[in-house]
Amino acid sequence: MLLNLSTCFLIISGGIGFLVMVDVVKCRFRFRKFTLHSKVVVTTTAFLLAAGALLLKFTDPLSWLTAFFLSVSARTAGFATLDLGTLSNAGLFTILILMFIGASPGSTGGGIKTTTIFVLAQEIRCIFSKQRPGAFRRALPANAIAKASTIELLGMLVVCCTTFLLCILEPGLPFISLLFEAVSAYSTAGLSTGITAQLCLPAKLVLIFTMYTGRVGAFTLLSSGWNARNPTRTLQKKPLRLDRCIMKKQDSSALFGVIGLGRFGSALARTLAEAGKEVIAVDCDEQKVKAIRKYTDYAFVVDDLSEEALTEVGIQNCGTVGICIGEQIDISILTSMLVLNMGCRM
């Protein structure tokens, strides 16, 4: 029992990611002080562990420890304390779902990641509640839902294609076992129902390619291929002024900028973020920028308040910008004139 629990602890630690582990220790296990990423990872991981253990317990005659161990191991490690081929189809399907979701970003595991499934769940909730997507008093970035949907769709596409090829190459094996092998390969979980050794060479090569795709990421592979064929797109760093005008016409109050993160600037950025607004926060002090990242993902260290530097962080896309540089009035005036010249309101 002690060995199983110790292994579970190591698997969970590796599955949540190194950044989350550092943040948890730094905040002394106080959930309210975690970053948004850490809150999402910890919450989603706890839900998946509990839900997986309960489903495995009720679908198969397993002990609570065995069900919990399988729920932990299925998403990243690939350890098993029993022959998975003896499980029912419902039990295999439960493990299959856990493997497909996988671990968290920045961890040692694969899958589509816990943050992806969390964003999709928030989108489903918002469809019925008619509210803006967000969690923990924070609004989700505008492109988060599109990225999450793309990652899930590509993952399902890879799994379906792999399963289809395995069904052609190995028509005598059960479909659920072949599907299990495909998902296990894509998520790099390492679990199997015991049919891997029976597969022919072409089927094994298909699994090898699927494992490589799952480890690198289908989204990454397609992005790298697209950028290789369109190199001019990657060289354009500055957004076009036309894009800024279009954005303002659509929603001029959707994005706020705060330059200077003193007491007033930090309070302003925090209040706007808690109100569900997208905020770009800028300061030359790295510690202040790190502190405000608990409330917004768009916090940047900018040493030189030039037009080029502010353009790189996206200040020109803000509908309203607050200049909160109170200590040096000359820099505050110059920055205000610069922001107005960039077409932003104050």
Short description:
With 346 residues, the protein is α/β, with parallel strands linked by helices. The protein has helices at 2-16, 18-26, 36-59, 64-73, 89-101, 114-129, 144-169, 175-186, 201-216, 218-229, 231-235, 241-251, 263-274, 286-292, 307-313, 329-341, and strands spanning 134-135, 138-139, 255-259, 278-283, 298-301, 320-323.
**Roughly how many Å apart are the termini?**
62 Å
The total of beta strands comes to 6
Order of helices and strands: HHHHHHEEHHHHHHEHEHEHEH
Structural class: alpha/beta
Question: Uncertain segments of ≥5 residues (pLDDT<50)?
Answer: 232-252
Proportion of residues in β-strands: 5-15%
Main sheet overview = 4 strands, parallel
What coarse outline follows from CA principal-axis ratios?
elongated
**Residues in helices, as a percent range:** 55-70%
The number of helical runs is 16
Write down the Rg: 24 Å
- Adjacency order of strands in the biggest sheet: 5-4-3-6
The overall average pLDDT, rounded, is 82
Description:
The protein is α/β, with parallel strands linked by helices and 346 residues long. It is built from 16 helices and six strands. The chain has helices at residues 2-16, 18-26, 36-59, 64-73, 89-101, 114-129, 144-169, 175-186, 201-216, 218-229, 231-235, 241-251, 263-274, 286-292, 307-313, 329-341, and strands at 134-135, 138-139, 255-259, 278-283, 298-301, 320-323. The strands form two sheets. The chain has a four-stranded parallel β-sheet with strand order 5-4-3-6, sandwiched between helices. The longest helix has 26 residues, at 144-169.
